[in-house]
Design goal:
The longest helix is centred in the first third of the chain and has 15 residues. The protein starts with a helix and ends with a strand. The protein is mostly beta strands. About 10% of the residues lie in helices and about 45% in strands. Bound molecules: 2-acetamido-2-deoxy-beta-D-glucopyranose (NAG) (4 copies). It holds the Pfam family CUB.
């Protein structure tokens, strides 16, 4: 074992023995060791060029292996710039009950009833709970796509299908979003009630088969610990037949820890082709754990990652054959650029 591996193993063992949980699988997210003793913040620490910076949201740092970072950054860990640990929320609560300290981040219960109702095809739902109802018992055209983004302020999100006229060939899919990108999609059906997802952001996609169908009603409730959303989260759901998008919207440079989501799901079914015309992000060899743009193609019940790029790379155009896709942009803490522009039609 080389000295780097020994250091990494020691730090990991120390963290585990101290009651910390790794939020993402270790081999994929490694290198910056930040241990929070209250475990509240899940913000990532990022290291670049020997500079160690942490967001103001990070509280009560127990220790930070700054002197070792350059060592840890070597070897296999190079280019895996995010490492994220925290105490499981339940353990945080136990500790807080024991010492009966004030509980600023106590578990938050679900709302008794959904506080907002959304009836449109797609939408940006920023609420603790919502009823999402689209064409309930009324007809929906074949091949329809609708995308809702749910981002309640609490981490745990429970989804229930209340009523549905959807057919077997249609589906409502839930996909969690994190800094690792989009997770797998779960199909919500009457037989799988109370689907619970622990994520700051969940994307709901309605995918109608090649025949007309009937609408549905579902509910969503968030609860539990406060979520640590990105510093800035932008969502723009693109439903027109074609469009041009630039980010940041007002020009200038993007900031740190931004996450921007652009689901592309034209409300009149078609197969949009996406073309990037300008890309100016921080460059890195791996992209994915630094500033990056990811393009996802809806295919066979899930969002499939087509490409990840950064720097000034203009990717090949992508056609969403199944009528829906998504562009995800994320930034880390350092070296912001002037963003990007794309067209789709
Ligand atoms: C989401 O809702 C909260 C509470 O209503 C509000 O403070 C916050 O600004 C909203 N965020 C966005 C991005 O609209
Ligand atoms: C779903 O969860 C709610 C709230 O926890 C509970 O009241 C309800 O009985 C659950 N439904 C099913 C089918 O498990
Ligand atoms: C997008 O921009 C291109 C060139 O900048 C222009 O030709 C095209 O008409 C624009 N499309 C839309 C939908 O605005
Ligand atoms: C996107 O998914 C569709 C449907 O599965 C597939 O036909 C197409 O080749 C995919 N496109 C890309 C660029 O991956």
């Amino acid at each position: 074992m080389n000295p780097t591996s020994i250091l990494v193993v020691l730090a990991v063992l120390f963290a585990v023995a101290d009651g910390f949980e790794f939020r993402y699988p270790l081999p994929h997210f490694a290198n910056v060791f930040i241990i929070f003793w209250d475990g509240i913040s899940s913000k990532m620490g990022v290291v670049g060029h020997g500079v160690t910076v942490m967001t103001p949201a990070v509280k009560e740092v127990e220790f930070f292996l700054a002197p070792f970072l350059d060592v840890v950054l070597g070897g296999d860990f190079k280019n895996c710039h995010h490492f994220d640990v925290r105490i499981a929320h339940d353990r945080v609560d136990d500790a807080k009950v024991e010492n009966s300290a004030p509980q600023p981040n106590q578990e938050r219960p679900e709302d008794p009833e959904p506080i907002v109702t959304v009836k449109t095809c797609g939408g940006d739902v920023n609420a603790t709970s919502a009823s999402i109802e689209f064409q309930l018992w009324r007809s929906i055209r074949a091949d329809m796509r609708c995308v809702w983004i749910v981002r309640g302020p609490y981490l745990k999100k429970r989804f229930n299908l209340i009523a549905s006229g959807l057919k077997e060939t249609d589906g409502i899919y839930l996909s969690a979003v994190s800094y690792a990108g989009l997770g797998n999609s779960l199909k919500l059906s009457r037989s799988a009630q109370n689907v619970t997802i622990d994520s700051e952001i969940v994307i709901i996609s309605l995918i109608v088969g090649h025949a007309p169908t009937l609408g549905f009603k579902m509910e969503f409730y968030s609860s539990g610990a406060s979520s640590t959303a990105p510093d800035k989260l932008s969502c723009e759901i693109l439903t027109s037949a074609k469009g041009n998008v630039s980010y940041p919207r007002g020009g200038g440079r993007y900031g740190r820890y931004e996450l921007a989501l652009f689901p592309i799901a034209p409300s009149v079914p078609r197969r949009p082709t996406l073309r990037f015309t300008r890309v100016d992000l921080q460059a890195s060899s791996n992209c994915r754990y630094d500033d990056a743009i990811m393009i996802y193609n809806w295919s066979d019940g899930r969002y499939v990652l087509v490409t990840v790029f950064c720097g000034n790379t203009i990717p090949a155009s992508v056609t969403f054959q199944d009528g829906a896709g998504l562009v995800l942009f994320q930034s880390d803490l350092i070296n912001a650029g002037t963003g990007f522009e794309f067209q789709y039609e």
